[in-house]
Write a structure and sequence with these properties.
- The protein is globular and about 30 Å long.
- About 15% of the residues are buried.
- The protein is an alpha+beta fold.
- Helices cover about 15% and strands about 20% of the residues.
- The protein has a four-stranded antiparallel sheet with strand order 1-2-3-4, covered by helices on one side.
- The structure holds iron/sulfur cluster.
Length: about 80
């Protein structure tokens, strides 16, 4: 079964990626290549930037394919 949702975490924040929703706008990796790098697998590396920078970039995803929630609160925040 293909994966509809992939999750990546740094212990503080969890980034959720929905490949079927991604429109490949390239915004995420052009904006934060240290975290979002389509040339490597897994393509999301949450050790690559601060939680704040990750959240800021996730929030710019135009399709809603990327979202995040803070692990502490366990609450989903629209990204
Ligand atoms: S910014 Fe969003 S839509 Fe664009 S490539 Fe990244 S995940 Fe896909």
């Amino acid at each position: 079964m293909p994966l509809d949702t992939l999750k990546y975490t740094n212990g503080e924040v969890t980034v959720v990626w929905k490949p079927k929703t991604c429109i490949h706008s390239t915004l995420c990796w052009k904006g934060l290549i240290s975290v979002f790098d389509p040339r490597v697998k897994p393509w999301v590396n949450l050790q690559g930037a601060s939680t704040e920078a990750i959240i800021e970039q996730v929030s710019k995803c135009p399709s809603g394919a990327l979202s995040y929630y803070l692990n502490e609160e366990g609450k989903k925040v629209d990204g």
